[in-house]
Amino acid sequence: MxxxxxxxxxxxxxxxxxVSQQIKYGDPxxxxxxxxxxxxxxxxxSSSEVDTLKQRIAEAQRGERFILQGGDCAESFKDCNADxxxxxxxxxxxxxxxxxxKTQMPVTRIGRIAGQYAKPRSVLTxxxxxxxxxxxxxxxxxxxxxxxxxxxxxxxxxxEGYSYASLTINYIRSLLEGELEELFNLEPEMTSLQxxxxxxxxxxxxxxxxxxxQLFHQFNGRQTAHKNLTEFYTSHEALHLHYEQALTRQANxxxxxxxxxxxxxxxxxxxxxxxxxxxxxxxxANPIAIxxxxxxxxxxxxxxxxxxxxxxxxxxxxxxxxxxxxxITEKLPALITAIQDADIKVLWSCDPxxxxxxxxxxxxxxxxxxxxxxxxxxxxxxxNAHDSHLGALHLEMTGEAVMECVGSTxxxxxxxxxxxxxxxxxxxxxxxxxxxxxxxxxxxxxQKAADKQQKP
Length: 456
Ligand code: PEP
Ligand code: CO
Known about the structure:
Layout: H1 28-40, H2 47-61, E1 66-71, H3 82-103, E2 107-112, E3 125-128, E4 131-134, H4 148-151, H5 156-176, H6 180-183, H7 187-196, H8 204-220, H9 227-230, E5 232-237, H10 241-246, E6 248-250, E7 256-258, E8 263-266, H11 276-283, E9 288-292, H12 298-308, E10 317-321, H13 328-341, E11 347-350, E12 357-359, E13 365-367, H14 369-385, E14 390-396, H15 431-440, H16 444-454
Parallel strand pairs: 1-2, 1-14, 2-5, 5-8, 8-9, 9-10, 10-11, 11-14
Antiparallel strand pairs: 3-4, 6-7, 12-13
Bound molecules: phosphoenolpyruvate (PEP) and cobalt (II) ion.
C-alpha cells in the first residue's frame, strides 16, 4: 500500500513548516480534543467524486470544458438553512447555463460552499474607537461580533463548522435530485432584486434567461434533473490546517484525500514556497488550486507547480490568477510563457474579484463592476494572444439581493452600499451583475478554436 502521494509527507507534516495566518488558541488541549473528535467523524465527500472532478478539470485544461467556481467570500453558519443553500445552488447552476452558451462548452460548477468558513486577513487586528481586537477570521475560528469573547478563537467552532458543512452538503445532494423546474427557477431572486431597488433595471440576459426557462418548463413539464446537468462540487480555502488535516483520509487506493471538500485551494497570503499550506496540499490526491497574485515571479511559479505536481498529472493543478485590472497586462504574459516553456499542465482560472477590491465611503469594501469586467476580458484576450487557454472563472457572487459591488447596468452607487450589504468579508456580485458579466464577454478564442477545427 502506498503510504502517501508524496515523499516524506504525512497529513500533519505541515506542522514542521512556517504557518502564516496561524490561529492562536489559548488551550492546546481543547484544540487537540477537537481535532481527535473530527478525525473520528465520517468524511463529507467521497474519493471517487474527487477523482471525477480531477478528470473534469483535466478536460478543462485541454479546452474541452469550462469550470465555473463561485459563491460567498465567507460562508456563515447562520446561512445553513434551506433557502440560503437553495439560492446558492440555483444561482450557480443557472449562471453556468449562460457560461455554457457563451463558451460553447460543457460546464462544471464548483461552489465556494459547505466549508468556506475560514478567512485569511491582511490585517490581523481590528480597531474600533480605542479598542483593538483580533480580526474576524471566519465562523470556523471566531465570531464577527466586535467583543473580546466573540473574537477569541474557539476550537469547538471547528466541530460546528463540520456539522454545518455536512448539513449543507446533504441538502445540496437532495436538491440536485429534485425537479428541473425548481432547480432552475430564479423567480424569487429576480423579485427580491427588483424589490430592493424598483427603479433599477435587471440585466437583459437575466430577463431573457428566466423567460427561456419559463417556456422550457411550460413545454416540457416537470422533469427530474439529469446528473450531467446538475453535477456540482464543493470547494473552500484550505486555510485552517488543523481542520483540513483531521478530514484527510486514506482511500482504498492508498492515496490520502482531503474529504472535507472536493477542491481545496490555497489563498494568496499562504502560498509562499515552503509554507505549511503548500506542504499540506502537496500530499493530498485532490485536484488543488493556488491563487496567483501580482508579486509571484515566473520562476517561482514554475517551482511551485513542480513541487505541487511533480508528475505533471493532468487535472491536478489549477492556477487562479488574480492581479487587478491595472496589473494583469504587465504580470500575466510572463507567467503564461514560463508555464508553457516548462511544459507544465495547469488549468488557468481567472478570479477578477480579489485584485480589484477598494474601500468606499462608510468603510465599505467594494469592487467596481467595470474593473471586474475589464480584468476578465483582458484575461481571455491575453491567454488567447499567447495560445494559452483560460478554462475557468472564479467569482464571489450571490443570489441574495445585495448591493456590494458598484456599477453595472443595475447601477449600484457608492452611497447605496449601506442599503444591502450582507457579506461578512468581501463584496459579491449580485445575480444581475453576474449575468451581465458573462454576457459582456467577447470570446474570440472560441472562434479561433472553431477556425482551427475547420482547417483540413
Ligand atoms: C478569497 O478567495 O476570498 C481570498 C481571500 O482570495 P485571495 O487569497 O486571492 O486574496
Ligand atoms: Co474574498
